[in-house]
Amino acid sequence: MRISVIGCGYLGAVHAASMAKLGHEVVAVDVDPVKIERLAAGEAPFFEPGLPETLAEALASGRIRFTTDMAEVAGSTVHFLAVGTPQGPTGAADMRYVDAAVASLTPYLTAGAFVVGKSTVPVGTAARLAAEVSAAVPGATLVWNPEFLREGFAVQDTVSPDRFVYGVPDGDAGQRAVAALDEVYAQALAAGTPRLVVDLATAELVKISANAFLATKISFINAMAEIAEVAGADVTALADAIGYDDRIGRKFLNAGLGFGGGCLPKDIRAFQARADELGVGRSLGFLAEVDAINLRRRAHVATLAGELLGGSVAGRRVAVLGLAFKPNSDDVRDSPALDIAARLVELGATVLAYDPAANHTAARVRPEVETVDSAAEALRDADLVLVLTEWAEFRELDPRVVADLVAAPVVLDGRNCLDRDAWTAAGFTVRGMGR
Ligand code: UGA
């Protein structure tokens, strides 16, 4: 099938490469010439396991091309919209990239073409854009097909997702859109991936409510961590125990620094803002609390660090292990780890930070946080060790080796990811989160 992908960020770059890998003819467009040049040269613009290989395979097949020229999408049957919807100044999603993408795509649409939205948008956006598209090009149809990929597993989640959701209009156009998307995703569908056909508004809501639920689950366990801390309980044991109930499930019940990244934090705020506009703000009132619990975790770590250093971090040497918002990523957007490192610098600590992938991205937004090239360099002569992203490299550190490097054997495990017994046996004072 001839496909275009508009927007080559996280979502678009992975989607475009994966679609070519599946055998489709893909043209991928972005307004950023540097990004396009790098992708065309087979260079992934961000750290994502499996993407360089998928991209190389796609380029070698000759089935993908990258361009800044929108005119090249002409002739594609399916046009995926994969541009960003960042947080605007009021918390609501900034729709300018989506609107601009649709406006610049419209001149190249033909009757029978499908515009398929993948971006996370405020409910109601698809209906508005669908009207614009069919007014401009009678016979062209806009549908919504939200994406659920996780960073770190983006290729796998794109090629074999948990489910497909197609938001389509009633009638023939909707049926034709379903048939077109079935062709795009034929391989995963043949392997039994569930596919739900819904209306436009439901498709938009599925995406944002899934993220709101995940954020709520994380803040729930972090609220339990706050209680466990004052009650003298262990939130990790609590999560294990409640997680055995199938209705609850153990996944996304890891207490720690809370959620960050380019999706969960901005999505819960955008969802609240949209509910307010729709006059049902109270329905999502709890999301303000979810956000507040989440942000409290960061302040709490800074306070704990001061306590562990006898009252203040000022003038003390702190090793920060991890800056990315989660492991297997170089993404530091709204990263709790980077936020905490910057707070400690502001409080006067001498911070040496190391992340296996995110040093360069962190340096761009928080140049005041000094980064080093290895965990050992960060750890040398440290008065306190903070583990802020649960990379395997940190989980697997030998505490006896670390003990020889640091000035004082004190570790704050912000992700409850270390083997407490082993670190204690090596002479460390180990402070976890909510335990
Ligand atoms: C999230 C969703 O999980 C995806 O399904 C969705 O497609 C994506 O947003 C999106 O909207 O594009 P992602 O941002 O890659 O994916 O990250 P997650 O794996 O959800 O992790 C988010 C944050 O929650 C991370 O900072 C992670 O450390 C934190 N987290 C996760 C916890 O603090 N505890 C947990 O138990 C799980």
CATH topology assignment of the largest domain: Rossmann fold
The overall strand count is: 14
The total tally of domains equals 2
Low-confidence stretches: none
Count up the helices: 18
In percent, how helical is the residue content? 40-55%
Note the main sheet: 6 strands, parallel
| Beta-strand share of residues | 5-15%
Shape: globular
Mean pLDDT: 97
By CATH reckoning, the class of the largest domain would read Alpha Beta
* Class from secondary-structure proportions: alpha/beta
Rg over CA atoms: 23 Å
Give the CATH H-level superfamily of the largest domain.
Answer: NAD(P)-binding Rossmann-like Domain
Describe the overall structure.
- The protein has 435 residues and is of the alpha/beta class.
- The protein has two domains: 2-198, Rossmann fold (3-Layer(aba) Sandwich); 200-435, Rossmann fold.
- The protein contains 18 helices and 14 strands.
- Strand 9 (317-321), helix 13 and strand 10 (350-354) form a beta-alpha-beta unit.
- Bound molecules: uridine-5'-diphosphate-glucuronic acid.
- Uridine-5'-diphosphate-glucuronic acid is lined by residues 120, 147-151, 211, 214, 218, 252-254, 256, 258-261, 263-264, 325-326.
